[in-house]
Structure formats: C-alpha cells, structure tokens
C-alpha cells in the first residue's frame, strides 16, 4: 500500500461520532476565540492574550483543589480571580519597575503559570488533569465526555465552547461603540464617557471565559495561538474590525480542519506508520496549522502588496471603522 | 523539608544538582539583565518555546540513524537551532507584515510550540523512542542533572561573564541610546545577536533544570528584582546573578521536598517570591525623578 | 565655490528619502557652514529629523551627503549625535558619568583599556557643562535640562567637530532652553559646528548664525536673519496641518 493510500485509509477510518466532533469543537473554539482575539490584537494587547491563557491555570487548579469538583462555576471563578491578579500584577510591575509592558506581563504570567503547574502536581493524585494535559490539551478525548442536549448526546466541551462563543458575540455587539472608541483613541473615548478601563475589563473577561472554556480540550499554548494568530492574519487582510473578526473565525476553522487532518495523515504520509506512529497530537497540529495559515496569508499579502500601489500606512494603521 | 534538605546536601548527586542550578541562576540573572534592559524580554519566551520542535527533531533524527534519540549534545544542537529559528521567525513576521513585536512573538511562540507538540506526540509512539527525557525538558526535572550539566552550565556562565565584561561599554551604550550607538558606528546588529545568543545559551543550558516553557522567567525575574536596588547596569547584573542563584537553589530544594514535582515551576515561584520581597522592601529611588517623563 | 566647499561641514545634494511609498524629502540641497550654529526649522513632519538621520547614514536615501569633507562612515567618531528625547530610555540604570564616558569611548575605542582616561575626560566634560556634582547620579533623577546637558557633555567628551541635536528643547522650559543655547554657543565659539533641529522660531533669529527651512525639501537656507523672513516662513509653514502661518 502506498503512502497516499495509507493516508486516505486513515481518513476513511474517520467517524462523525469522534472525528466530526473533534473538528466541530476546534471550529467552535476558533469562533469563540475570534471575538476577544480580534479585539486584543486591534488594541495592541496580543501578549495579554498570552498572559490570560497562561494565568487562568492556577485559578482552575486552585478552584479544583478547593472544591474537589470540575464544576464550571468554580473553574470560571478561579480563572477570573487569576486573570484579575495577572493584570493587576503586571500593571503594578510596569509602574514600579518601569520595565516595558511586555516584560511586566511576562513576569506576571510565568509566575502564575508556575504556580498553576505546581498546584496541578499537588492535585494530580487521582484526577484527570496533569501537566502535559494542561499544556497540550486533550481534544482527542473531548468527544467522549457527553451530556444530553435536546434529545442528542452532545460532548460537554462543544456545549460549553458554543455558549461562550455566543456570549462573546452578544457582549461585543452590545458594547460595540465604547469598545470601538476605546480601541482607537483612549483619550477621546474617556472624554466621550466610554470608560476605556471598563472596556479593557470587558475584553479581558471575554478572553478569560474563552480560555476557561477551551482550556481542557485545547491546552494553554494552543489557546494562545487560537486567540492571537487568526486575528493577526485577518488584520493583514482587513482594515475594519467586523470583517477582521469574521475572517479570523474562518481562518481558525480552517486551521482546526487542517490540523485534525494533518494529525491523522501526517504519520502515514511521512512513512512513520511503519515505526508504530499512528496519530499525532491534534492540538499540536492545529497550532502548527495556525502558523501555516498565517504564513499563507502573509505570503499572499506580500505578493499583492508588491503588485499594487497600496498606501503603505494601511498595514500598520488600526482597524477602526465598524 | 529540613530532613530532606540535610539528606540532599550529604548526597554528592544532590550537590551536583544544587551547584548546577545555582550556576544556572547566576548566569541567567546576568544574561537576563541585558535582555530586560535591551527591551527584548519576551523574545526569550518565544525562543524558549521554539526550542521544542528543534529538540524533538534532533531526537528523531538521532533515532533514525540508529542513535538513542537522547544524546545530550544532539538535543542541545536541536534546541539551539530551534531557538534561533524562533527568533528568525519573529524577525521575519515583523519585517514582512509590520505587526507589532508582541503579536509577532505570540504567533511564533504558539505555532512553533504546537509544531513541537505534534512532533513529540509522534516520537512518543515510536518503538524505543518513548520521548522519555524529552518530556521532562518541557517543565524541567533537576533530578536528571549530571556532572556534565554542571560543566556545561559553568562554561556558559564563564562565557557570559567574559563577553559582558569585555563588551560592557558597547552593550550599555546600545541599550541606553541605540541611535547614539549607531551614530558612532557601533555594530548594533551584532551586539543584539550577542544578547540573543547569550539568552539562547542560558535557555538551552537550563532546559533540564527549569524546562522550556518557564525558561524566560529565570532570565527576566531576577533582573526585575534587582532593578530597584541598582544605579548601574554592571551593578544590576551582579545583584541579578545573586538573586537568580538564590532563587534557583531555593526552588530546587523546594521541588525536592515534593514527590515527582517538576523543578521549573518551583524555581520560578521562588524567584517570584524574591521579586515580591525585593519590591516590598526596595527604597523608592524613582520618586526623585523630576521632569524626566519619556 | 571650491573655497566654499572646504568650509562646509555638511553638504547635501539632491537628497531623496522615502519611508516605504511615502516621500519625506525630495531634492533637498543644502550646505551647512563649518564653525557655525545652524537651526533646522520647519513644521511637524516636514522631514527635519529625517534630514539629520540621513546625514548620520541611519536610513536609506538617494542623493549625495558629505560630512566633514567625506562620507559619514569615514568620520563617525568626529560627529556627535544627540537623538530625540523620546528615543532614549530615561529609566535606564546608568549614571551621568557613564553617559559622558560613552563619548570618550566613541573616540578612544570601545574595547581598549581606556578606563582611566575616559573617566578623567568625562569628568572634565561634565565640569564644563556644570554637572560635576551630579556625576554619580542616575540619569533618570536629573531634570530634563540637566539630562540634555549630560548629552552635551557626551559630545564634549567625544571631542566632536560636528554636533547634531534632534529637538533638544522639546518639553524644556524657556530658562533652561536659554542656558542650553548659551552652552551650545560656547561650543560653537570653540570651533565646533552645531546643528540643531528646532521648533521655537522666536530664538532662531537671535541665537543662531544660520537657518535651514525645511518642508519636504529645503525651502531656503543661509544667514538666520536673512532666511527668517515672513515670506519664506509662510512658504514653510503655510497650510501645514496643525500650524497656522508662522507667528514670527
């Protein structure tokens, strides 16, 4: 059997019950991440996405240790506390140490992430979170954890992530004007009564909720990728926020499909099945696919930019019209 | 804890482990000061995460040619290549797209670490591969340190000390006032490459002890903790080196007291504790500033 | 003309500079006299700083720029550059003496063991600008005017023949600006060529020898009193965004 046949064979073995849901969960995560991701990137806070995605870990682990359950309310509460601690801590460090914002953020989130890892080790006896799951996620097992919804057996992760995605879209639609104003010109927004700090908090809360929802199935590093990479890619192509968020969601969905396909066919195509390799980590492949999608968009844009006399400021200007 | 500690000090292997982490902490403090003052702190984070695909790739290559997939020098070469590639990707994104630096770093970090994860999951399924030894590199396991690691770490530390003392004036001028440094014809590109190279050397030297994902913390936190106490870059390097060594040793001891614990998180937490203590008792030197808002 | 050429510290001919597709300077031609104090004047975004950076070879350009009779790379050690205040990290852990020493290092070599000599010369330079008492203080603790003095001391320690300052008076009060101008005049009287990117029109006529009016190109240059006319200033500032016609 040739390598190509083996790859096709691997895809034929797909079942909607498992692989279908894996892709669906990945795509839902992409949609949920697109809203806060686009806003964070447009507000020049890409690294805050990184920070929040790392910082929610001690919140989740701590909530688990305290409550002994994996109840979502506890996890969300813990994560919210951790996210607030992260942004307050980094703001304090930036002010007192007068280091750049990125460095302050880096300190705050690595310390919190370290705390989270240490807590996970404490909690690891007899529960289903462990350090590698925290980093890499376990999307492969997400379809197995099902609940009843509308007469169907639906994976719990899909419901949770879909709910957060809907909430993100709703919040962004409701608070659209102040968020837009404060993304573009904080001074103006403050003068117009839009309260940029409150907008920061809203965007941060969206990102935190998304991280909590996606954490178990996608893992921390992949969540960072889903928040930032599609939004950055979309920003290269769009000058306005709404198309940017839509494109980011589309790119994220593409990466979810591409990633899971790659996870299944990479081993046979590379001839590694002979060595006993069956499937690659889907989360890892999705993150790598995000990178590939970004590179593709950047490449296409580089070609079109070369051929068109485009205003060079467009690429760096903030998308500010709805 | 205290019995565990006394037991540790009597054991020659434990002494090697402690000496290695102390040297590592000092070396990271020094290189991290440069990274922070040159405003490149998070480049270390991108580089640290980007080592994973390099390490796994090198391990796989070694397996393919009949090696064990765990030879230290192979992994070191892979890690260095991965980190260099990570920094190169950050630079490429910035040049090609004009996205802000933090976005470029988040993209490189997420994609390359994801790639490494996918590769690691493949390697772990290979018969005889197991990915063992590799997985502990992610969050660090100081118990795996051996004598050779001490010599490697010491060599990195000596090289960093020698290079920074030789090029101190150049590095200070570049970090303080890049335009001036360029205007008198100093090679800013090479000096920046040197700062990155020192950071990479420390990340790679420290991957067994602190792990990849947290390596940036041991670089950045001691430097930040030293900042309020120092008026000069040289002084900051010395204080950061001392704090880094103290944090690394304390973290190693703490992790030894917890069964099966990865070392990295505990080292980072001790460094975080030192930072908190430093900020709590630091003199408010900054209040003397007048009209210097930049 | 040949005679003139020998007395020019900087001669710029048909200089074009573009940032990507945006042209900042086009066909700029100007000669800056050696031993004079010259102000480069123009509205925001006119290309004043760009002109300076092109002289320093810090950005790509087309056209010809000769500094002290040759290409900039041949004489970098003799040219002191003071960047815009915003380009400097004022929170950097560095003492005033170390800032001045950077100038001495630029001249004496960076790698050599010039420590003692660099130290002595930097202290002399600091005494010259009246900062001897503050030599051990971190630069961030100084006032804005003192910080600019420290940078002038750096230029002194470099023993530069040509000093270029980019907006040195930004966010500095009038008294401090006057003191700093005195200091620069002292420098000029010792034979150093001083070039200042400047935005305060009121002092140009009285305190500078020459002026260069810039807006996308060199509008006019020559003796300050002759160049700073209502007509030429109107051409430089007229209809510029954020500026009315020149108040001078």
Fold and architecture overview:
The complex is a heterotrimer of chains A (322), B (294) and C (248). Chain A is mainly alpha-helical. Chain A has one domain (3-144, 151-307): ABC transporter involved in vitamin B12 uptake, BtuC (Orthogonal Bundle), CATH 1.10.3470. Chain A has helices at 3-12, 16-42, 46-67, 72-97, 101-123, 131-136, 156-174, 176-184, 186-191, 196-218, 220-237, 241-269, 282-307; strands spanning 146-149, 152-155. In chain A, strands 1-2 form a two-stranded antiparallel sheet. In chain B, 62% of the residues are buried. Residues 285-294 of chain B have low confidence and may be disordered. By secondary structure, chain C is an alpha/beta fold. Chain C has helices at residues 2-6, 48-55, 96-108, 115-128, 144-157, 174-189, 201-207, 224-227, 230-237; strands at 8-19, 22-33, 37-41, 62-67, 79-82, 162-166, 193-198, 210-214, 218-223. In chain C, strands 5-6-7-3-8-9 form a six-stranded mixed β-sheet, with helices on both faces. Chain C has a three-stranded antiparallel β-sheet with strand order 2-1-4. The chains are: A mainly alpha (322), B mainly alpha (294), C alpha/beta (248). Chains in contact: A-B, A-C, B-C. The interface between A and C is small, with 6 and 5 residues.
Number of domains as seen in the coordinates of chain A: 1
CATH class of chain A: Mainly Alpha
The side-by-side strand order for the widest beta sheet of chain A comes to 1-2
CATH level 3 topology of chain B: ABC transporter involved in vitamin B12 uptake, BtuC
User: Describe the biggest sheet of chain B?
Assistant: none
Main sheet makeup of chain A? 2 strands, antiparallel
Q: Any guess at the CATH architecture of chain A?
A: Orthogonal Bundle
C-alpha geometry of chain A: globular
Q: Specify the number of helices of chain B.
A: 12
Helicity level of chain A: over 70%
Helix/strand/pairing class of chain A, anyone?
Answer: mainly alpha
- How much of the sequence lies in strands of chain B comes to under 5%
Catalogue the unreliable spans of chain A.
Answer: 309-322
Summarize the largest interface: chains and residue counts.
Answer: A-B, 69 and 63 residues
